[in-house]
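Our example copied in:
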Amino acid sequence: MNSRRALTSFAAGALGIALTLTACGGGDSGGSEGGGGDGEAIESITIATSNDAPFSFTDDAGDLQGIDGEMINWIADKKGWEVEVFVSEFATLIPAIKAGKADAVVDAMYITDVRKEEVNFTDTWYQQGEGMVVPGDSTMTSRDDAKGTVIGVQTGTTFIELAESLEPEEIKYFDSQAALLTAVENKQVDVVFTDAAVVAYSLVQNPNDAIKIVDPYEPYFPGLIGAAVPKENTQLLEELNSGLAELKASPDYMEILTKYGLTESNAVD
């Protein structure tokens, strides 16, 4: 993942145009009215998320949960901000904040050089890598075993790069993590590469012998996770970084990570 999930420059441009024309995912929330800017005090922040557990997802009340979700809630609580949520597909999240539909992407987004051309990133929230997921009866034990097979990836992610590097028979694209896992279960694909934390959390919630995570596994994309903000919103960037530093100094930081299956190896200073 993002890895988790990387937006290409082409996709960002095309989807940004689509967002501008269609207001994809909702009305004119967040962006221009929240998240500060021009030295005004920040009172509310609209978070862009693809609504994928365990990173950043909404509960029945519409409130953010998950690793990233609880972290931004913690920061917002300390800052006295109201949190609103803008939900869209992962590949449209950066175009969403650039179009003013939300103030920040908080959704396990890997910090990459390509993305830095589009947005600014906060300091690192935590680190994690991709997982290799195969059918329960698969004999694959390493990434090399995936060469020349049918590989599934999520649209808009850097896992596409990983899949291409394996010279697959075919790459199949899916719009969500759930669709990826279903494809493995139904043997529409031989293997998928996606966020390890997503699969681990999913299998804890819903054990399924039809799929398994290859273990041990060394990630191709060991990645650093950050929140993304529009380049012009330096005030929000500074506020998020100060809140993140306070969170990391608190025991709540590790409590949030471990609640969703992560460990001290995922923590960063």
Summary: The longest strand covers residues 104-110. The first helix runs from residue 9 to 22. The domain at 9-127+222-266 is CATH 3.40.190.10 (D-Maltodextrin-Binding Protein; domain 2).
